[in-house]
# Entry
Amino acid sequence: MTHEVSIMSGKIGRFNKLAGKHVLVIGGSSGIGRAVVEASIEAGASRVTLTGSSAESAARALAEVQSAYPGASARVAAIPCDLSRDSVEADLEALFVEAEKSQAAATAAATTAIDHVVLTAADPLLLVPDLQDLSLAQIRRAARFRMEVPLLLGKVAARHLARSSSSECSLTLTTGGIADQPSAGWSVMAYLAAGITGLTRNLALDLKPVRVNAVEPGFVDTGLWAATEFTAEQAAAQVRQVAERMPTGRAAEVEDVAEAYVYLMKDRNATGEIVKTRSGANLI
Ligand SMILES: NC(=O)c1ccc[n+]([C@@H]2O[C@H](COP(=O)([O-])OP(=O)(O)OC[C@H]3O[C@@H](n4cnc5c(N)ncnc54)[C@H](OP(=O)(O)O)[C@@H]3O)[C@@H](O)[C@H]2O)c1
# Structure
């Protein structure tokens, strides 16, 4: 009762932990990341910055989010950041600096430090049905988003999160169910997903007291699948098959898995954890 009153009067309640916080979602323009942006706004984050791979996708996402949440328009910013280039570390550094500045301009503060960082940005999955077709160039390309970016993000985020006055900062990475459940043709993705699990636990020590965790989604119906060689019919069939096979009886939607990211930002007791949200895939 007391907390209800304090929230309604605009004060911060015990569970309103994103109030006053600045959340940066790298990959927030679409898919799971976009849902994390919207979930963060609904969970009361004071500032949310999203990134897209291009100026167009970042601007489109910003316009859509502002239209969906007109009351939060001034609290949301979007920054284009292409992470596919060899300048990835400098690009991440520039992103953090820009995120701090752009939100400062909106709020008339000198600088607006980032409190929580979420990484969902990634390029299309590399699936190799016949291992004989796999090349070194493919392996190196696949490593960009699922090995190099998470590691360099840990390095860059460590410096910027230290500027926050909050002692509750976090970095949340994204892995995938393939880390636990092998599937023919998925060797490259299984290797990189399992690597993110190990990286998460180790970064939790390297970045302490910043908390470092990861979300492990199972199948989620997003544009990620459209970017594979699946046809529209194959993609639709996959959603149906997942719904038939999974204990939850449905394919996950981005609104489902976004909750795991919000949880990891809010639980000050969680670090080095991998939160699984997989439709019960672990049970079958
Ligand atoms: N969907 C699933 O079933 C599933 C399951 C397990 C794990 N995951 C993992 O979850 C993460 C998010 O997946 P998703 O399904 O949300 O994918 P998605 O809908 O395809 O979204 C991918 C995001 O990455 C960004 N991105 C792509 N290329 C980029 C680049 N060169 N530079 C910077 N950003 C770039 C996209 O930005 P633009 O739109 O602006 O290009 C977009 O915001 C991935 O790591 C994926 O492997 C997904």
Q: What stands out?
A: The pocket of NAP is lined by residues 27, 29-33, 52-54, 57, 81-84, 120-123, 174, 176, 217, 219-220, 222-224, 227 (CB under 6 Å). The beta strands are 22-26, 47-52, 76-80, 116-119, 170-174, 211-217, 274-277. The chain has nine helices and seven strands.
